[in-house]
Amino acid sequence: MIQGSIVALVTPMDDRGAVDFKQLQALVQFHIAQGTDALVAVGTTGESATLDEHEHCAVIKAVVDYADGKLPVIAGTGANATSEAINLTRRAKEAGADACLIVTPYYNKPTQEGLYLHHKAINDAVDIPQILYNVPGRTGCDMLPETVGRIGQLNNIVGVKEATGDLSRIKKIRDLTGPDFAIYTGDDASSCEFCLLGGNGSITVTGNVAPKLLHDMIMAALAGDKETALAIDSKLVALHRDLFIQSNPIPVKWALAEMGLIGKGIRLPLTWLADEYFDTVRNALRFAEVI
Questions:
Q1: Which residue is catalytic, options 133, 171, 235, 264?
Q2: 161 an active-site residue?
Q3: Residue (of 239, 247, 235, 243) closest to 271 by Cα position
Q4: pTM of the prediction?
Q5: In the chain, is it the N or the C terminus that has fewer CB atoms within a 10 Å radius of its CB?
Q6: Of 161, 171, 212, 226, which one is the catalytic site residue?
């Protein structure tokens, strides 16, 4: 089971919006050095919605190659068409990904039965560990704990990223799945409490800019060291809040550029961070002592 601080990696781009593979390689090396426990390549934070299929698969392969076995790579392979999700998942396996993160189909709002059949089709088509991803605030579709429990019985389904911020779901999902099923949070603001309550880690945006702090906080929480975990998390509270001051990944890409780690590229319909928020995000970085 992959545990700990799992960074939902941004996709660096140049000022024309082309993927910058040199900066991507540097980011992967940065996370290896900082102690990040795993990376998600081309998740929603990686702007999966605006990369074409060739770019999507190229970024996954590049992250796998750059990581070189030093940390696990989870590939974002979700789509709102089941056939597309199967194809992306198959390509991720061919690229050498350790697992896939598969977001609930967005916009078309499937029923709970539709969610089950969608994931069963991917499970049956591609033999690779698969992590469910429930983020109803972005998809318009909520995968209920009972459905997670049902899908979790399939042989390739190993965990869920639960991004509702509802901490009561941890116990519900655990009771329906068992101790070997990984339950990750996708809500940075509650990640400390989530792990103290029995979660297995955080698939994090904040970890892009404060990877060592995130790793140390999550490890302390997983060990049950509440005092240490809360002390570290207190340094991160402004980042947890202000990296979402505009739609993700707008603020985190600005923050990484401010740190000198990437350029100022982002793809429409997303835009660069509004000037009025520069000081807010910069102060959050200073509060966490990462600049």
A1: 133
A2: yes
A3: 247
A4: 0.97
A5: N
A6: 161
